[in-house]
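Example (one chain per record):
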Amino acid sequence: MSGSDRATAYPPHQPMSEPGDLMPQQQYDSRQPYQEPVQQGYYYGDYQPYEQAPDGYSETYDQQAPAYQAGYEPESVYAAEPVDQAPGYAPTPGYAPTPGYAPEPVVLAAAPAPGGRSAARGRRRKAKQKRHGKAVMAGTALLVAATAGWYAVGQDGAKPGIAAADGPGPEGVSKPDHPAPGAAAAQAASDRQSAAQAADRSQTRQDGSVAAIPGLGAAFTAKIPAETTQVVLASGQDKNTDKNTVTLWTRTPEGRWLAGETWQGHNGKNGWTTDHNEGDLRSPIGVFSLTDAGGRKTDPGSKLPYDTDSRFVVSGTGFFGDQLAGSFDYVVAINYNRVAGNTPLDTRRPMGSKKGGGIWLHVDHDGPTHGCVSIPEDKMAQLIRTLDPAAHPVIVMGDAPTLAA
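Predicted structure:
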């Protein structure tokens, strides 16, 4: 059968086209320069627009990535609990400033110009270290000064009981106080007494004994009897003062002297005199023996002859309104113008009544006397128990400048 007899007609022959790129090809225009093809999407099974996620991908790009493992929980960067410390570890206590310490203010430098040298070094100046040496020395000086002031106040603050009388009976009525002594005279007396004490201190031994009683010059030292081993020293600052200090000194077997207690006392309102007369309100200056004691109260344990008598009584007020009652509860007669070996109430006056008498050591009533020397009541009882006839006790009394001459 010839081809012309076939029932099916075949299309005319066309040449086979070469397989092309899967990417769509751009049409080239011969009039334009060559351009690289531009990919419009990415391949994920098929081309899709760039903004669209691939099919089956459910999360967007700004979401967090899924956990690496199931059940995994990320840990915090910082531990919630403190780090374990070594056994026995104790944190260092905080700094506590010294009481009374005030830190020095920090001095800030002025703001420098940008780029200056101060900018590189920083703007805070380092505070200088405090030097405490001078502060310690000043504190020590203050402490020494405060201690010295305490002793001075302690002595002046203790007012001893003292009274004085020219014989038994009331001491008189109140009178204006005597003018205070001149500053120059008081200073001169103080200087002489200090010089004498300084000389005596150089001779002090370890037992506290001294070669001579401080404050007594050669004249008064010579008046102390050789057999005397007990000396009561009553000394005022100057001739016009009514206050004094009373100390009992004891002589050792070697002839040295040991000081007992020192008490504050009073004497005559107008001070001291070497020529005492009735009513001059001055205490006599000199060295007098002590041989007889007595009082309104019973014997406290005296070694001297002691006379208990109700006539040792006085009433009324002193020169400054001080109460005189009880001033003669304990007395020791000072043998000035009297007959020794008799009761202090004996009124005989060997030198005559004009020269006064009845000069006693007795209980203080916190005020000046007519001429006696007075100390506190408990000290009077102590003195009466201490004085011993075998020691031939005496009293050396007067103002410091006179006694030191």
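Caption: Helices lie at 117-121, 133-157, 183-201, 218-223, 377-386, 400-404.
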